[in-house]
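Narrative progress, year one. The postdoctoral researcher (J.K.) led the effort to move from monomer predictions toward full complexes, under supervision of the PI. The following entry was the first complex the group processed end to end, covering 659 residues in total.
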Amino acid sequence: MSPTTHARSDHAIGTLAVKSFLALTAKTLFIALVLAFFAIPVLWLVFAPFDKHPRLSVKLPEFTLDNFAALFSNPNALASLGNSVVLALGTMVLVLVFGSLASYSLSRVKIPGREILLYALLLLSSIITGTAAMVPTFLLMVKLQLIDSELGVILVMGAGIMPTVIFILKDFMDSTPKSYEESARIYGAKPLRILWDVVIPLARPGLATIAVWAIVQVWGNFLVPYILLRSPGKSPAAVVMYTFYTEGGQPNLALISAFSLVFSLPVVAMYFFVNRRYGFRFHGGIKS
Amino acid sequence: MASITTTHLVKEYPGGVRGVDDLSVQINDGEFFALLGPSGCGKTTLLRTIAGLEKATGGTISIGDREVTDLEPGRRHVAMVFQDYALFPHMSVEENIAYPLKIQRVSKLDRLAKAAEVAGALALGALLKRRPGQLSGGQQQRVALGRAVASNPEVFLFDEPLSNLDARLRLDARTFLKRLQQELGVTTVFVTHDQAEALALADRIAIMRSGQIQQIGTPREVFHRPANIFVASFIGSVPMNLVPARVEGERVLVEGSHVPLPESSAGLALDGQDVTWGARPEYLSLHLAAQPDAIPGTVTVLENLGAAVLISLEVGSQMLQVIVDEGCEPVPGTRVWVTIDPRRTLLFDAEGSRIDSGVAVAPLAEAVPAL
């Protein structure tokens, strides 16, 4: 090999190394930017509640617990968390009971156009809890005399998320082997009994996922309770937060940040609990 | 305990496919009855229709003196063991076995006592608290049996319960199953595609094809006197030799050689009729010198069966298979002569049905050979 080729190949290797270094740097930078974009709100949520003078920027706090003291002395704050729990649990129970029944039937009974029906429902479901349908929904609730009633909110929220619930649960129901049910049928079990004894226990991971998901949907929803509930005493946390203003008409960041942290903790805790117990799964499958 | 009777039973699927086609069968009280056939022959459909998991399109089913055609499965007093056992994975062995009793609203104490008793009899006593996922295939199969036994049924329905076990375990499970059935004396319908399993277990076998029964008989009957070519070729670990032939007076012309007319066909086979000549490889005798009434051939392939050797012979344009004891096999290429007792041969007509006088031929003392 001549020295020229040597030099040239060294040069080539050098260029390659520089290129790959640059590519790596660019990639790292990009990932860092994306991470920062998502991390900054979380950092704000962690730091601001403990800051004497919270602002809409991330900075190391001048540590204080006064914000929480103020929050807990606010008459609406804690009560609203209770209201949120009622609405979220109510909706969860509603969608679990009716979602299980509906998805089991849809999984077992063949009707023409079943898949299309499911997809259509799924696509249209976001309308119910969305802004566009709020006027008709409001009028409907007035007719049903369900304005300013927790039941009204639970029904509307339940209707809105039910298609997704059915869609996900049906997959779990589908993956329960037919022979399990037939076996139970041979010994005299009726459909509801089979659902309770055999299908529900096997679909537990799916039900747990759905339960958490339903709670989170209601917990974070502002529009539906804001429109359907009139008395401040019934408002859930998401609506009450909207009322935290200083006398000057500025958002009371001290209260809002502290409340945001308290507001998000139950959801995070629930996620960890369910994930540990069942693992989050959006598809069926039996581990026997 | 009860007999099972179906009359003109039809199960038609949407699209007109008949899984069960106009079947009338009588299964006797306490009998071990096997439904045998290739996959898609309708044997599982028949079983599921008896269970009530499929609704009959026509005809009736009776269990004992009750007509059950329109009854729910749970009210037919049957127990079924599925091919995949269908054990509930979230319940322990104990809960699985006691489940039928739970449905029957037996008190918890009583049903757990019954489960323990059944489990003890099935050698599952130490495993009561385990989940099905922690058991071996054979143990799972016994739990499924235990659940069926605990429900105290009039009829057992088994859908290929042994086919998920490995070969060695299957033999043990087979013996176990036969003993259990003998002890309990419960009428049992057993679906299988394995002819050896059916021959070994059943009191009587129904061989099915395309939703229809080809023959019903004891293992010995279907082995020695198959009703048609389909049954003849389906039964037996090595299929029967079936060779095109022609009747010539009191003789049959098989590939240029004359052999005696089978006794069962005496007086029925017409002179000059084209037939299929059938002979089981187990009953053919091999000779190294010319014999009267022998078919000459050339040894082409030897297959070792353990204690015996399967020899394939070229006879004219046809192949004949012969089983001989180990150590007696000639080398490939050897010229040999094959003879057979005319009581051991069968003739089938052009439609495939056995040509038979119906008169019982001198009984053949030998049992079905080991399969």
